[in-house]
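Technical annex B. To support the medicinal chemistry partners, we prepared a structural model of the target in complex with adenosine-5'-triphosphate, based solely on the information shown next.
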Amino acid sequence: MTDTPIPPPPLLAARGLSFARNEEAVFGPLDFAVDAGEALLVRGDNGAGKTTLLRVLAGLLRAERGEVDIDGHRAGHHDRSRAIAYLGHLPALKADLTALENLRFLCGLQGQRSRQTLEGAMNIVGLSGYEDALSRQLSAGQKKRLSLARLWLSPAPLWLLDEPYANLDLDGIHLVNRMISAHLREGGAALVTTHGAYAAPPVRTRELVLGGGDA
Ligand SMILES: Nc1ncnc2c1ncn2[C@@H]1O[C@H](COP(=O)(O)OP(=O)(O)OP(=O)(O)O)[C@@H](O)[C@H]1O
């Protein structure tokens, strides 16, 4: 008799997850799961709650109700900081450090994916030559690219990407999709918020629509 292998738990699972501000519902209750190797596109109009959902999942805001599991275990603070890389609307960069110093600082805080160098990540995101530029001197798109380099260097399997295409030119949009595809091929997963105009990571993708029911 052969044992049927038990499938691994989803990388991320949310059950009955809701958030309210001043007793007014922002989203939920939501039920969804993301497996390793999958992307979840979080769509919705302006104000639908996409950013709020990612911030709740990252542990930056407290849910009103519901549960979040990572790798089949209730996600505590430590699990979230180990498993999650969060790319917010605004680049989390130190203005008076150079591009390379920013990456070094963030890798010191959050760890570094094995076999990746800071210079290699700068090259992947198209910022070779900007290593010594102060981050405050970078354009909005270059700052986004530097944040993408930090994301690429993170060892966390679960990417929470809030509008990763914002401020990027067409080449940058393709870069984001290539990065997501490569990350998923390596067994990672990604939640990606978008208004829907550009996002098409060419990978296994589920969709969650806020403000209009789950799809
Ligand atoms: N700091 C805050 N204080 C009070 N209300 C907030 C705050 N941040 C967001 N909101 C409200 O919460 C709701 C959800 O906002 P959120 O930023 O999550 O939406 P979103 O779907 O990401 O929107 P967008 O597509 O415009 O970025 C909105 O009604 C917004 O006005």
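Notes passed to the chemistry partners:
The helical segments are 50-57, 77-83, 99-110, 118-124, 140-153, 170-185.
The mean pLDDT is 90.
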